[in-house]
Amino acid sequence: MKLLVVEDEAKLADYLKKGLTEEGFVVDVARNGVDGLHLAAEGDYDLVLLDGMLPGIDGLAVLAALRQSQQTPVLMLTARSQVEDRVKGLQAGADDYLVKPFAFSELLARIQALLRRGRPSQTPTEATILKLSDLELDLIRRKAMRAGKRLELTAKEFNLLSLLLRRAGEVLSRTELAEQVWDMNFDSETNVVEVAVRRLRTKLDQPFDRPLLHTVRGMGYVLEAREP
């Protein structure tokens, strides 16, 4: 799932991106209100983490602008602990409010709770369950099942499978996989994608009769249910 962090404190923003990426999320970061509003308006995010005090446009103004066009869940992060400040944020359209400093475990729990609600235009199944043939991916519970059997995946393997499943039938290049899953510019000397795909295929396909993850020579990889 894709998150946007709008936070001007560089150390905290980097900490959040690292921790949430390790949990399997795809994370973009904006350092000010102007960039945050632009990304939130243009990107297809499942949730926005929004600092209350930002340069350019403050968090409440960003939130108010977003609520004119979309209902993406927003979790406000702020150093303001006064009740009236929290009330203002919630009244402006925030879905939850977390006061700094906070424990990462609590932040993660609040994110998961908000994601479980889904977007108003989606049913919970549409929002959180991906399926292909006998493969099922639960994005909230972080579970992958095939033919009723649990697949024990690492966070990166889960993220890789999630991307492939979201775009099932589409050939994804090594460059795109590296950018989307590892947030890195692809280096031809790096075999991180090939290694990850090989390990995922061992868990996803080898125990079963019908492979789903296919290599397209010279182009990349595709997840699809092909006829025998």
From TrEMBL:
Residue ranges of DNA binding: 127-225
Superkingdom to which the source organism belongs: Bacteria
Keywords (A to Z) from UniProt: DNA-binding, Phosphoprotein, Transcription, Transcription regulation, Two-component regulatory system
TM regions (residue ranges): none
CDD domains noted in UniProt: REC_OmpR_CusR-like (cd19935), trans_reg_C (cd00383)
4-aspartylphosphate: residues bearing it: 51
Ranges of residues in domain Response regulatory: 2-115
PANTHER family: REGULATOR OF RPOS, TWO-COMPONENT RESPONSE REGULATOR
Protein name per Swiss-Prot or TrEMBL: Heavy metal response regulator transcription factor
